[in-house]
Structure formats: C-alpha cells, structure tokens
Amino acid sequence: MPVDGSLRLILPEIIVAGTGLLALTAGLVSRRSRLPGFVSMLGLAAAAYFLLAEVAGETTQIWSGTVLVDGFSTLFKAVFLGIAALIALVSFDYIERNGLPAGEFHLLVLLATVGMMFMAGSLNLITIYIGLECLALASYALTGMLRGSAKSTEASLKYILIGAISSGVILFGMSLVFGVAGSVHLAEINAALAGGTPMLPVLLAGMVFLVAGLGVKMAAVPFHMWAPDVYHGAPAPVAAFLITASEAAAFAAALRIFLVGLPAIQEHWTTVFVALAVITMTFGNVTAIVQTNMRRMLAYSAVAQAGYVMVGLAVASERAVSAMIYYLIAYAFATIGAFAVVILLGRYHPAEDIADYRGLGRRAPLLALTLTVFMLSFIGIPPTAGFFGKFYLFQSAVAAGMPWLALIMVLNSMVSIPYYWGVVQTMYLREGETDAPLPAPAGVRWTAAIGLAATLILGLFPDQVVQLVSAVQVVPALLSGGL
Amino acid sequence: MEYNWLLILIPGLPLLGAALIAAGAQGRWNRSFLAALGCTAVFLAFVATVLVRLQYNAAAPFGSVHMPLWSWGVDGVGLGLLGDSISTWFALVVTGVGFLIHLYSAAYMADDPSYPRFFAKLNFFIFAMSVLVLADGFVGMLIGWANVGVASYLLIGFWHARPAAAAAAKKAYWVNTVGEIGLILGAIVMLQHFGSLYFADVLPQAWFAPQNVLNAVALLLLAGAVAKSAQLPLHVWLPDAMQGPTPVSALIHAATMVTAGVYLVVRAYPIFEAAPWGLPAVALVGIGSVLFGALAALGQNDIKRVLAFSTMSQVGYMMLGAGVGAYSAALFHFATHAFFKALLFLGAGVVIHRFGGEQDIRKMGGLGKSHPFAYWTFLIGTLALVGLPPLAGFYSKDAIVVGALMAGRPWLWALAVVGAGLTAFYMMRLFALVFTGDSPEVAAFQRGEGARQAAAAAEAGVGRSRPVPPLKMVPLVVLTLLSIVGGFFAMPDLSGVPGAAEGARLAAPPAHEAAVAGRVLTESSAATLTIALLLAVSVIGGGLALQRFGPKRAPQTAESGFVKAAGAGFYFDDFYRAVFVRPLRATAGFVGDVTEPHVIDGAVNGVARLAATLSGAVRRVQSGYVRRYALALMAGVAVVLIYFVLMV
Amino acid sequence: MDFDPTRVAFIVVSAIAVVSAFRVVTAAKIMHAALWLGLTFLMLAGVFLLMGAEFLAAAQVLIYVGAITTIILFGIMLSEAAEVRGRGAAPLPVRRDDASLFRRIVLPALAVLAFVGVMVVVYSQVSWPDAPAGLGGDTVRMIGRALFTDFIIPFELAAVLLLIALIGAIVIAVRDNGRREQG
Q: Which residues 6+ apart lie within 8 Å of B544 measured at CB?
C-alpha cells in the first residue's frame, strides 16, 4: 500500500473501529461497569476531532475509488459520530439496569457506525454494500440484546429475516445495474449511461430493486413492516440509534447511488420516490394516530418522518438535498432526546404506554417540557428545528414545480398533530397515579438537554445551519468535470 | 424617544406571569399570592399597552411602533411586534378586559383546587392573544393563533374530569385545526406569491396581485377566521365551549379570542378588498351567522348557551361590518361587544352561583328582587347588546348596519335589521326568565310541591342573598360603566396600517370610503332611517319577549318544532357527526386493524411471557407473520416493476 | 434449434436448483430441509461452472456445500429443542382450511408468478450484448489481485463485518444463567 497519506483520510473510521475493540476489552476487564461507555465516547470524540481537523475540507478519491472523502461524506460522518456518542451517553443507565453486556453493546454500535461511515463515504457499490451489511448485522444483534424479553428476541428475528431479504434485493439491484453499466463505481456507471440507456428495462429493474432494498432500511411503506416491531422490541437506545443513524445512512447511500450513479434515469426514480414519499408519510401518520404505546407511536412517527425526508429524493434538487440533510439532523436530535425520556419512563413503567406519561408534567417538569419541545418539533411548529426542516423540504418541492407534494406534506403534518399533541396532553392534563418525582440519571438528563439545545438552536439559527449544509454536494466537485 | 421595547412587555409580562405561577404552583406557594401575581402581570401589560397606544397616537396619523424580534434568515419569514391603529386597539381590549376578568376570577374560582393552574393558563392566554394581535406578519400571527387555540383548549377542558368538558375541548381543538389548515395554506400561498409574510410587504402588494391568487388567499384566510370566530358553518364548538369556567367563557369565548377572525379580516383587508370574492364571502358568512346565531339563541335554555349563540351572532355583525368595508365599525363593535358581553357573562356567573350551579333559565326567576346589583348590571348589559341609545352597542351596531346600506347592499342591510329584532327578542327572553317573575322556590311552593324541596334548596345555600364580593363587583361595575359610555369613544381608523396608503392611492373603492366615514354617516338620511328602524324592531322584539316571558308569563307549553330545532342548534352537530366524525372513527379503526393485525404481544400478556424463549419466538415467526412482511416487500417491488413494464 | 449441451446442462442444473429450493421451504422436517439446501448450493455451483466461473464454483462448493450446510446440520443435531430436531415431537401443527390454502399456496404462487413474469418481460425487452469473450482462464489470480489491490478497503471492511457477525452471534446466542426481566 503506498504511503501517500491516504490512510490519514480514513483515520476517523480506524479510530472508531479501534475504539470498539477497546470498549470490548474494557467490558471484559470490568463487566457491567461504565468503562466501555466512557471509552466509546472518548474514541468518538477523538474520531470527530480528526474528522474535523484533518479530513474536513478534503475532496479526493482514494484506493482505486473505493473510498471517497468529500464534504458530503464528512458531514454525514460527523452526524453519525454525534449520534453514536449520544447513544452511548443515553445508554449508561439502560445498560446497567438491564444487565446488557456493555463491551459488546458499544462495540456493535461503533462498528455499525464504521459501516455507516463507509456507506456515506464511497461511490463504490461494493463498499456501500459492505458498509450496509456491517450496519445491518450489528443492528440485528443489538436488537436482540435483551434476551430476557420476548419482544426483543422476536424483533431481532424478524429483522434478520427481512434484512436478509432486503440485502438480497439490494445485491440483485446492484448486479443488474452492473450488468448494464459494466462498473461498480457510481461515477463510471454515470459515464456509461450518459450516452443513452441501451438496456433500459433491465436498468429500471435494477433501480427498482435498489429502491426497495434501501427502502427497507429507510422504513418506506410497503417495505417498512419490520420497523414498528423492531423499534418497539429493541432496547430503547438501539431503537433510537436505528431510527436516526441507520435511516440517515440509508438516505446518504440513496443520495449517492441515485444522484451520482443514475441521473440518466432520474425521471423514473423520482416518480417512484414521489409515490413512496406520499404513501409512507400518509400511512405512517394515519397508523400512528391509533397507537396507544409510546414506542410504537414513535415507530410509526419514524415511518412518517422518513416519508417527509423522501420528498427530498423525489425532488432531487440541490436545495432538496440540503433540506434533507437539515431535516435528518434535526430529526435525529429530537428523536434521541425523546428516547431519553422514553428510557427514563421505561425504567418505571416497562409497558411504555402513552398512558404512563400521565402526570409527567408534575413528576418531572423539566423533562416533560423537553419532551413537549420534541413533540412540537416532530409536528413542525416554529421555532423548533422540525419546522424549518419541513419548511425547507416544502420550499424545495414548490420550487421544483411540485406544489401538490408540498400540500400533501402540510396535510400530513396536520394529521400528525393529534398523536404528538396527545402525548403533551397526557403529560399535563391527565392526573397520574402518583405525584412522586422521577429522578433522572445524568446520562438521560444530558442527552435530553443536548437534544433540546440542538432542537432550539437549529430552529433559531436555521440559515446558518443551512448555509453549512448547502455547501455540501452529493456529486463531488472532482467528478463533475469528468461526468 | 422611542419606547418600542414596551411592545415586548405586552405579551412578555403575561408569559412571565404564567411561568412564575406554574413554577410557584409546583412549589406550593400561597394561592392568593399567585392569583395576585397573575392579575398584576396582566395589569402591567395593560399599562404597557396604554403607553404604546399613546405613543402611537403621538405618531399618528401614519405612525406605528415596530419591534423586530427574530428573523430566521429565510426571506420574509420572521417575528416581530407591530403597534398600529388596529393592533393597539385590540391589545387594549385584550389586556384591559383580560385584567378585569382576572380580578373576577380571583373571587369566582377561589374554591377550585387548581386555582393557580387556572391563572397560569389565563395568563398564557393573554400572552398568546397579544402575540396574535401584535404580530407584524402572518408568522407571528400564526404562532399566536395556534397558542390561543392551545389556551382555549386547556381552559375549556379545565375541569377535565367532566367528560363533557373534555369532549368540548376536543371538539374546539378539531374545528380550530380545520381553520388553522386554511390559515397555514393561505400563508403558504402568500409566501409563494409575495415572497414574504410580513404585513408591511404583503398587504401593500395585495392591491396588485392576480385575482385568482387573491381569491385563494382570501378564502383560505376566511376559513381560519370562520373557525376561530365560530361563524357559520364552523360554529359548532362554541356552545360546547361553555363547559369551561364562566370567566373563561367571558374572556376567551366572548370578548377576545372569538374575535380573532375579525382581526384577521380587518388586518388583511387589502387582500379581501382586492380579491373579487373576498368581501362578499366575508359579508355572507357574517350575515349568515347573525341570523343563525340569533335564531338558535331563541331555543336555548342554558344561560351560557344563549350567550354563546349571541356571541356568534354579534361576531357575525363584526364580520358583516368588515365584509361591507366598514372596518372601523367592525373594530368598534368588537370593543363595545367585549365590554357588554364580558359583563353579561360575568353577570351570568353571579346568577349561576346564586342558583347553586343551575344553568337552566327555565328553572330561574325572580332574581331582580333579591339581587338588585346583578339585576341592574345585567340589564344594562342586555340593553347595550340590544342596542338601545345611548348605550355602547347602539353606536357600534348602527355603524355596521349603516355601513351595509352605504356599501350598496340593501339586502344585507335588511337582514341585519331583522337580526337586531331577533337579538332584542332572545336577550329580553333571557333577562325576563332569569330576573322577573317568581323565584323557583316560590314557584315550587305555589305549585304546592311542598316545603321539602324549598327546604332542601335553602339548605344547599341556594337563594340565600349573599353579598357579591368586591373582587367580583369591581369588574362588573367597570364593565357596566364601559357598556354605558363605550359608545362615546373615538372609532379607530385604518390610517398608517400596512396596505392602507396604497389602497388610498388607488382611488379608494366606495366601500372603503364608507369605512373611513362611518362616524359621519350617522347624520345622513340613510343613517337616520336605519336608526329609526333598528330602534323600532328592537323595541318590538324586546316588548314581545317581555310580554311572553315576563312576570306574567304563561305556563310552559310544549315546545314547537322550530324551538326544538333551534335548541339543537339546527342539527349541525348531528350532521358533522354523521358526515365526518363517524366515518373518520370507522376509518381509524379499520386502519388500525388492517395495518397492524399483529402487534408484537411478547410482553403484553402473561401467557406469551411464559413462551419467551427463542423457540417460542421462532414458532410465532413461523406461524406466518414475517413471511407476510416479506410478501408485502416483494409485492411492493412487483407493483413498481409492473408499473414500469407497462408505462415505459 | 441446435443441440447445445451447455444449454441442456444449464436447464437441468437450474431446474434441480429450483425444485430443491422449493423443497427447502416445504419440507416437513428441518433435517430434510437442510439437505435440500445443500443440494441447492451444489446445483448453483454447477451454474457457476457452466458460466465459466471456476473459482466461484469451487468457492461455492467449499464454503456453502461444505461449511455452511455442515454447520446447519450440526446446529440441528446439537439443538435441545425437540421440535427442531424432529424426534419425539409432532411436526408443527398446520391448519388446513380454505384461508390457509389461499395463504400457503395461492398467494405465494401468485407472487412468484407475477415476479417471474415481470422479470421475463424485462429481460425479453432487451437485446443482450454478446457474452464477454472469456476472462482469460486464470480467474483465481485475477480475483486475488483485485481483492488485494483495488478492493482492499471493502475487503478489510468485510473483516469488520465478520467480527460483527461473530460478536453478534455470541451476544444473541450465549446462555445467560442470570436471566431476568428486561424491557
């Protein structure tokens, strides 16, 4: 391997993977201690430092085009690192309480993060696929970690089976695209298709399989059916991880694959994504209304939110992409923050019914207020981050001449009000069985506070964030000349 | 010297108050102190409003006080406060009447265990309402709009242990959501077309925008206004909202919040005026609500429901005023109505307490002898509402009706006169049933139903002539005075309001002239005719009611079909239930069944918990659920593939 | 049509692969299913061979037929659950009513037919390019070279993947004696 400094560019990934092994070792040294969590957070911080100090600003392809470092990948990697750190923070108490193997937990989270970083950081279908598999395998194991819980085991099994199918579907799609374009590198695929699409039906079939396979990870209807079960049955921090990071990674990969690799058939995949977006958000919202369990409600809400994000893929303009990224970041913070409260409540009310939130306004006023802000952000009420996420997506849809899609988004947001607002109402208006205060562990408190701060900052200074985000290009500049 | 920062205090102090009271209630602070805190916050906000109004007056005629608060960096989307002719007028009434009702509540709610919570919510409402009226663009207005909805929801459901209150709160919420959808869509269209949501950007441009855009915006905004102001056909929530405590009904569901729709129409009047369908639609909604509310009020037997339908009818007058271009008259009627309707509701609160919680006016009577204070205040409120000179309602209502005639709409004018007659009839019916005749105890005694009932009533403290506590008396007295002299205030005009200058430059349309000249018109012949007619129908209507329901009322006979229909609000509720609620419920249930036939039941019931082993899970998986997921997945792929095979 | 031994061989091999794959799903005893799976793998190796991918065929036999099928068989034999091993326990109860007939036979058949039909239509609409002129014999060398030069990062990432699989399997499968209520 040439010593050309290219290793430096994947140093963050290497650090994260190494940290995983360290965390595992730490878990072996002192079982059920907090050590692995601290190791993990330190490692993530170091990786983030190297990412921002060394890698940021670089745009280059290394190792025969199997790895790409550019603004887009750096941004997504930073998001993944942040999410992983928050998950580590929020799960201290959870791991201890449920007797999970701390070392293994953090190892799997970190290695899944590595997988996601490669999903966002490559234009090579093979790298993307293996990154996706790293994420998937780690997710299955994390989902099934609560071995004393039938829900968790069942969710894990369902996830493995559906995940295996989706994996096969993605591979099939990639092979069809490879068969037509003769390359696994997205830029070369693009170049091969630029002069015309000779085998259009096969290419379209490949595209459909790619959409479906990635759709499983995004939890797009009708590929979503695993999602509520998994988000409901998995350990709560894992559910938060899957809803935020895994979904974001799937969107990152989809952006690269479709915008860099397959712009030649953009009219076709945007059609599919329009339909998927509409179906997904509507189905998710309507089904969320009838939920009585908090986790299940959040699960269907995650489906609906994926539908909103998909509007970005349906529009597929530069503006839409930055709107998507903004939305994913905003949604990630609010979700993890909300899950911090869910984790706290789950400690006292294992059933996690929405009814268990009765009287939370008195039992834990600050956390209840925080959860209220997250719910407002999910609905999209200003000045929370969620509003601007929806607003930018909305604007991009209108600008792309799809005002009706924007209208459907707005109507869906309206439909979503009752179930999000229902939680707030339950917390403040319904009397709980007890007024006993709920002491929150430090990890939960900090996570909720960070989520709150981020939700408000993103909502109060959206233009700064959007400027940052819109500097990022899905199609890296070094390719646009050659394309 | 600029005192723009005073603007912040108007919503800021009540918000601070709400937060402090909420925190104090956690800390179990002294109840009276918290109530005093709430009253003080609103009083200071009122003082700030007065100061801003003075400052605005000093800067008049084209002045306004502006205070940008926040910009999100998106062009045309931001939040700021604007004190101009319209907004300070509204803010004065909101904080002023709000303060009086705070005072009244301090006595009225004294026995409620959630006393501090009530004040926190009331303060929060004042905050939200001030944001609504003081916002400098549709963004801030929407924020306020949504928050008054929340406050209204919380306060209607204040006694949420009562199922009726909870249901009423939910209903109000849903109807208002429908309106908010309209408002948000309207804002979206405006942002799309005008590139901004600030009044100062949008409204002056409105005169030059294409008609279809204006029509769309006007109708969407009107949908929001109709829902919030309980106008036809989205009025159904208002009568039920009377489940809230009486001060809430007085403040939110009579004096202030329900007039938000009027505020919206007047504020955005360039849009409504420039849109071909705008003003006619507003006027139509207005006159429809005037007549519908008055007719429905005829059949009500609950004192608060009579007043609720009366509110709907009176807000209809304001809408009518706005719809014929008599904006100043509409604003004027808003203020006077706030005075006398708040007075009537507070008086109704006294009455209800007097009868031990009874709200059925057929079971009341004879209050005039035992409670002269209540009698006189309520009488003045009633006469002001009926529109007898020189009370407040006379001036404002006449200005609106005259405006209709001046705008060249004789039909609206005629119907408005008819509405005035109906108003006199139902109000005098209410007054006569409650205050004249025999008290229920006497009536029961005379019917020979025995002393037992009377004794039981006496034991419950009913009928005992308790002095009205001063905290209740002061607001009643002030509101009575305002109801008497409110008509002498100067009407607000629209100079200096965003969009007004451009409208004036554009060879002001006739309707607009009528608005500016509203006060002058009282001298014209049309006005004289109107006044004479209004007085005549009012006296006739009131006289008929007094004759029929007064001291020598005939014994109750079976209700006619019309009265029954009016009592049921002309079956609007049943209609909505059949057309929307039931199908939606059925759909939701259906969706639940179809989309989620197999919820993981792992830990839900004990039997499944026993089987919580890997093999147990495997068996459940094998019994079919996962493969259905996979089938759905592949079916999705197949559908998309088939689409492409067929289409491409 | 000319008699083409390769084509005939391909049809035979792939037909056996499909039939045995079907039997994997429908076999009543899991042991039988595992053996059918082995046969499927073997036939797939045959398909690879017919396409000139010798290395892939060899790997298929070594890994799938040799290792994976064997591990599955071991897994079944070592399993304690009686119904998994298929001895001393009745096979899984199968409801036989009209609805189940629809679900078990008609629906899957429809799904498969629709899928096959669509893919046939897709493939038949395209004029396929001629098969590449052969990869030049030494595919092992080529694959090895590609793996350790161009695709070194995916290759290394695959190592991470294996680690995840290993740890994940342990996490899920290892017996925890101090099992307690979780959720």
A: B425
Tens digits of per-residue pLDDT, B238-258? 888 888 888 888 888 878 888
Is residue B594 in some structural domain?
yes
Contact A372, A339 (CB under 8 A): no
Cα distance between residue B294 and residue B288, in whole Å: 10
The amino acid present at C38, given as its one-letter code, is: G
User: Are the Cβ atoms of C108 and B642 closer than 8 angstroms?
Assistant: no
Measured from the Cβ of residue C16, the count of other Cβ atoms closer than 10 Å reads 15
Collapse the DSSP code of B277 into the 3-class scheme (helix H, G, I; strand E, B; otherwise coil) and give the result. coil
The closest alpha carbon to B413, from B320, B333, B346, belongs to B320
Q: C63 CB near a chain A CB, below 8 Å?
A: no
pTM surpassing 0.90?
A: no
What domain range is B582 assigned to? Answer: 575-603
- Give the model confidence (pLDDT) of B593-622 as tens digits: 655 554 443 333 333 333 334 444 444 443
**C103-140 burial code (b ≥16 CB/10 A, e <16):** bbeeeeeeeeebbeebbeebeeebeeeeeeeeeeeebe
Q: Which two tokens stand for residue B310?
A: 């009366």
* Token pair of B203 as six digits: 């409204």
Of A233, A283, A406, the CB nearest to B595: A283
Residue B78 lies in a domain: no
CA–CA distance, B595 with B617 (Å, rounded to integer): 21
Q: Is the pLDDT of residue B276 over 60?
A: yes
Domain parsing of chain A, residue ranges: 3-480
Q: Which residue of A has its CA nearest to C157?
A: A130
Closest CB to B638 among C84, C107, C118:
C118
Q: Which residues contact B70 (CB under 8 A, 6 or more apart)?
A: A383, A460, B78, B79, B80
B589 within a domain of the structure (yes/no): yes
3-state secondary structure (DSSP) of residue B79:
strand
A104 touches chain C (CB under 8 A): yes
Cα–Cα nearest to A212, from A265, A276, A308, A274: A276
Domain count, chain B: 1
C92 interface with B at CB cutoff 8 Å: yes
Record: contact B73-A158, CB cut-off 8 A? no
ipTM, 2 decimals?
0.88
A354: nearest Cα among A380, A337, A375, A384: A375
* Cβ-defined contact of B615 to C92 (cutoff 8 Å): no
**pLDDT at position B327:** 84
